[in-house]
Amino acid sequence: MALVVVAAGGWFAYRTVLGADCSGRVPLNVAAAPEIAPVIEAAAAEWVEDGAAVDGTCVAVTVSGTDSVDVAAAVAGLHGISLAGVGRASGTAVMPDVWVPDSSTWLLRLSAAAPGFAPTNNAPVAHSPVVVAMPEPVATSFGWPDKQLTWADLLQQITTGTQLRTGIVEPTRDSAGLSLLLAVGAAASAAGEGAQQATTAALRALATGRSALRQDLVARFPRSADPASVASALGAAALSEEDVIAYNAARPPITLAALYPQPASMALDYPYAILPGTDPARAAAAEGLFSVLDTAAFRDRLGARGLRGPDGTWGQGFEAPRGAQAGLPSPPSAAPGTSASPDPGGSALPGAPARGPDPAAVERALSTWTAVTLPARMLAVIDVSGSMLQRVPTAGGATRMQVTLQAAQRGLGLFDDSWAVGLWTFSTELSGGRDYREEQPVGPLSSQRSRLLSSLNAITPKPDGDTGLYDTVLAAYESMQEGWEPGRVNSVVMLTDGRNDDDNGISQEKLLSDLQALVDPRRPIQVVIIGIGDGVSRDELDAITKVTGGGVFVTEDPAKIGDIFLQAIALRPAAPG
């Protein structure tokens, strides 16, 4: 816990010279987003020069400029969880005492996946709206600066226009990209019955212009005022206001306009998180440093770096882009993907502002994005045992089979033609002496989407059928291994409402032994198992995925299978190679 993650963005450090009024040394390690790290470092240096101490012990502060995704990966690894798109931390990455990511969404995603992750304080220390950055000639064609752009306007351009080249940084790894995802999703949801189609179209359009790194995205803006260069370059991207200010400060050939679509999207809020496990002396030092960041002098330092204070107003030296308004968006309506008040279920972080991102909306947006944009080869295996005929009170009396098939059909609608999908059903003795039956072989959706939909519509449970789970898992794994394809995520996704109760099938010991012999790290196949209702055995399912890789998702309320299905798809790791 004494070291700090050192990653992209450089590093800044300040160590105290012991003064006469304190003795000893309390080290405080701070990891902050690269754009705010120099501001915190300068404030910390002045604080230490003025005699920073905790109970008479001198404080030494080290500040590292660290990309938020890198600290998130380290935290996830420490807690044994994974976040969609984040990946693993480097072998040298360990925890700081204080983390100042660019957005509270990092804290919410981690705390939702790891209940033991409970940082304290969490109050914002800066603010930067997320804007749509456009080269000024492009922005002018949209009526800027006189016309106020809405997210509905932008959604229409993204999905039906041909002139606007849009870009996004991978939203599972970038907070501005996530903000755009939430805003576009909220605009698409207004399409009523066509909401899923509008969302899917928007995400697919954005995915064609995505970048893994922010600097790569920014490099695609026009580097010449030549009209042909402008037309062929990036025309719009989600960036922070600070990004636009920094870009224009370099005096590029064409400056960027910052457009603030309405309703306001989720901004970057730079929460001050004291991480769990920080010892009391360091935690006290962290609170001392926080008090220094809540001053007019710190606000002026932020302003000079293109950042606002946490209330949305700015200090001296801030060069506001045209159209910028001071302050935070006003109630009554919350910004897309946010909640106007703390979550009643207690998911809001202590110390966080009342208006903040809705954890459920964040999870849903990222899950949908991953399902839509990640090419894959998947075998869906659906339980058709007799228990799938049970009624689900929370789904209007529909059967478990009906809500499962509805979720599968919606999921199929999200996948584009680059996917390869197959369909099996299973119970006991479903096809002669076998517990499983191939309804459709794994094949490209470009040629068999309609056949898959027809097969789904024709599925009916076997009233007297039990759950031949073990035989089916082994057969599905072997089948996917035979057709394994590089460059894709190869996975088996099973949906079941019971535990193995096939007296004539293989034992659990035999299943695990055979799977262990089949697993090839060079040709990974992820097994994702979705448990529905209260009849599943989590331990039984976990034992399988511990061997194969993948994950288990269980919901006691079958009506929630749609969201669980998306989460399961989103947590697949990236394809090797």
From TrEMBL:
It comes from the Bacteria. Residues 308-360 are annotated as: Disordered. It comes from Polymorphospora lycopeni. Residues 377-569 form the VWFA domain. This is Substrate-binding domain-containing protein. PROSITE patterns: VWFA. Residues 335-360 have a biased composition (Low complexity). SUPFAM superfamilies: Periplasmic binding protein-like II, vWA-like.
